[in-house]
Design goal:
Helix content: 25-40%
Largest sheet: 7 strands, parallel
Bound molecules: adenosine-5'-diphosphate, magnesium ion
Shape: globular
Number of strands: 22
Strand content: 15-25%
Length: about 675
Amino acid sequence: MKPDTPVQYVKGVGPKTAEKLARLGVATLSDLLELYPRRYVDYTSPCPAASAPFDADTVIFAEVCSKGSAVRLPGGRTMIQALAADDSAPLHLTWFNTHFAADSLRVGESYFFEGRVHGTLTRREMTNPIVRTVKQVEFSPMAAVYPQTEGLGSGQISRFMASALEAADPMPEPLPKELLERYKMPDKWTAIQNIHRPKSLQQADSARRRLVFEELFTLQLGLLLLRGRDMARTGAPMRPVDLEPFWNALPFSPTGAQRRASGEICGDMQGPSPMNRLLQGDVGSGKTLVAAAAAYMAHQNGWQTALMAPTEVLARQHAATLQDLLAPFGITVALLSGGMKAAPRRAALGAIASGEADLVVGTHAVIGQQVEFSRLGLVIVDEQHRFGVRQRGLLADKADKPHVLVMSATPIPRTLGLLLYGDLDISILDELPPGRQPVKTRAVNGDKRRAMYGFLNSEIEAGHQVYIVCPRVEDGENDGPDALQSVKRYYTDVAQALLPGRRVGLMHGKLRPAEKEAVMSAFKAGELDALVSTTVIEVGVDVPNATVMVIENAERYGLSALHQLRGRVGRGASESWCFLVSDHSGEATADRLRFLCHTQDGFEIAKYDLENRGPGDFFGNRQHGLPTLRLADLSADTRTLEAAQTSARQLLSRDPALKAPEHAALADQVNRLFSRTALN
Ligand code: ADP
Ligand code: MG
């Protein structure tokens, strides 16, 4: 059978089961062979019946002493019982609704029974154990356990797998021979057979390592090809620039970390190849200033800079901040956003194309087709985790190999960073501007809302401002006790009642751009005491006079998102507070929120999120735009990832477009992986 044969033609599968397999992402024969085991049950060292633990799956090797026949129970269930024994104790076996295992048992013969032991210390029982014969165990002493789906158990999948392995043509080898030799890896077909039917755990492990390598190698090749990053010369060469005049014009002095990062960036931009750097710094560490320094350098060299922000609110704020910082040097800032009216938009596009605009700030509108730059030399992407891999590529295509700087407050664990950016250089802002105090964080039950508002009122009385974040725009249909606090209802009911006489603003994603801007600038100017908002203010918004952040339904967010929201306060010199409000009483939720109360370190928080919610959640809804991996574990397979990455780069330096005939199978593999999850 060919690898792309539909799975329903595998012996024993058929159309009905094929539908169930589709739920596991299995459509073809090769998909089935790539449905890898979760773990193995080791049949080589069975446990004596007398000492089998009650709380874990166990294998017992025992002789069948007697066997009953099937009994029909009230309610239509059937039951069949047998008695077996090993040297240590008798074992009472019961099967419900399945004859299959019990029917084949013969009295006087010994079998392996796998399952969980229950009963008492003197009466050992097993219900619905899996039965394997001595011959079966000789053939494959490790039994693979597969992920299950509704109506499809691991045992059934094992049987389909056996027919698939039997019927399939041996899979072609996609990896170059020298890699197999260098890393002492088995060939593909051997690895596939061994991962499903290993003779030992070592064999399974070596098969797994080989397949993880292949998966990560393929992924790396795809990313490198997609990025089209060659080591050619940059199209925007720059000469060294003295940053002192820029630093001297600031109302404060830059932190040592800001100076260091800016120095690294300037160093890159003087080099022969395009900069590809990530600026990583916790919320409030002052990344915008470093971006301004980079734009200053580009401008001194006669190049335009484009800065892309994830939200309209943030783009507008950046445009205003950068205008203030850079206007003294004759740098003109243009704003370009999706919601702009036709006339100002035309004007902005004209200024960008003529080169009159030196710095262009916008949302993803900046990579729109109509936008033409005159001399784009530097691209800055703020809060990059909101952008897919491809969007960044598009922006870089707007010019001839421009320099690229991405900025993020989300510390990226090393493995994920390697995957997403390959050869990205990293600068870290590990120092906060002076005078910052940690934000006091408390988890609050909804009952305490009134008391909390007392506190909010006293902060407002003292001249400060507060944020209140709620999840949704409109009230939903099910307004049960668990209903989420909708931002509109909150604005009209709660905030007005509990903040009487205060100036309260409403902010959410469905407002028109001009409305958003009006609300935001009123809040910035201190004309509003409180802002009730959705998470559109999550990233980047900077109002140093705000000292309290209230987050309703805090249980809904990942810790990194909560940390981002918390980062909206504590930006000035005054003591600041964050209240995580939740009526959710679950232990796990409480643990998570407690963790945030005691930790201000964004890296620790990201690690906790990664460990507890996985990499998919880490960037929120798979916004990183990577294909789904079947086997590799990003928090564990670091070394394999590094090896795969080096190898991918070496291969592409010899065959840059992966067009050589001997790499056809590999190119095919890359296409397959990337078509499974389209990159955004
Ligand atoms: P983030 O890294 O979260 O993007 P911002 O660039 O928004 O941080 O900066 C946070 C705040 O700190 C801003 O109000 C900014 O003006 C201020 N700031 C930045 N650098 C310094 C500095 N060196 N000294 C004092 N304040 C600074
Ligand atoms: Mg920022």
